[in-house]
Design goal:
Elements lengths: L6 E14 L2 E7 L1 H6 L5 E4 L13 E4 L2 E3 L2 E7 L3 H9 L5 E8 L11 E7 L3 H14 L3 E7 L8 H6 L2 E7 L6 E2 L2 H10 L9 E6 L2 H13 L5 E3 L15 E3 L6 E3 H4 L2 E3 L7
């Protein structure tokens, strides 16, 4: 019998850190997840608490880094499910994880330089992609934007990588003042970046940010890969709740199984 495409495991919590108020990074241990997850794929976690009713839906999280049999997730505490998960994540405890799920980034592309754009916590799947490309020796440029300087974390880690790094904040408190698209246009104009068509482009962040970048790239007769942030109730294509409209034909894709990564030219951006 063929091996399953994904696994249900009891992953051990190795470390937990609150990077800033309600922004959590956790390292978990499962060789099946760590060694089989490709950049852009995700996992789902069953959140529960002995003193509370169990939320019906699992919670999806991008895998942001892998090292041996360990993998990392990064998330904001934004609701009841992630609040329970934050309290569940105690070193030595085990949590129910399903994955790896979905289709990740297409890394088998031509030899162009890699341009990675992240908005906010969209840095999570971008971090894993950066790890993949730098391990291959590819030339990588990362643009990371946040509302203000408090949104940045693990800066030393990113600066230690063999990449070109640009930071932007809406309020100008760190790096360039403006959003990700603003700094992209400015650095191309200033000749600090090449023309947009000279890159393989990967974008993760809030949907309006990805839509704006995708439109700009399309204006230059190019495309980018985007990782959609939508509600995924089951994560395995059963509930049909994460549909995204196809751009060049009738019908819909399911984000959880056809994505979450899509070519920007193939979908109607949400």
């Amino acid at each position: 019998m063929a091996a399953p495409k994904y696994y249900e495991v009891q992953a051990e919590v190795v470390s937990v850190k609150e990077l800033k108020h309600n922004l959590i990074t956790a390292v978990l241990r499962s060789s099946k997840i760590a060694k089989n997850t490709k950049p852009g794929q995700f996992i789902t976690i069953q959140v529960n608490n002995k003193d509370e009713s169990v939320p019906v839906l699992r919670r999806p999280f991008a895998v942001s880094y892998t090292n041996g049999d360990e993998f990392e997730i990064i998330f904001d505490v934004v609701g009841r499910g992630t609040d329970i998960l934050k309290r569940m994540l105690k070193v030595g405890e085990k949590i129910n994880v399903l994955g790896p799920l979905g289709n990740g980034f297409n890394t088998k592309v031509n030899g162009k330089e890699k341009l990675l754009l992240a908005g906010g916590v969209g840095i999570a799947p971008i971090k894993k992609l950066m790890q993949y490309f730098t391990n291959k020796g590819d030339q990588v440029t990362l643009i990371w934007g946040n509302r203000d300087k408090s949104g940045f974390f693990d800066i030393d880690f990113f600066m230690d990588q063999n990449i070109k790094l640009f930071a932007a904040t809406d309020d100008g408190s760190l790096g360039f003042e403006g959003n990700v698209l603003d700094i992209l246009k400015a650095e191309i104009k200033n000749n600090n970046l090449k023309k947009i068509n000279d890159y393989n482009i990967y974008v993760v962040g809030p949907n309006p940010m990805m839509r704006a970048v995708a439109d700009y790239v399309a204006e230059n007769e190019h495309y980018c890969q985007v990782s959609l942030e939508v509600v995924m109730a089951c994560g395995i294509g059963v509930c049909q709740g994460c549909a995204v409209k196809k751009k060049k034909e009738d019908g819909y894709y399911l984000t959880c199984v056809d994505g979450p990564v899509f070519n920007s030219c193939s979908i109607e951006m949400p």
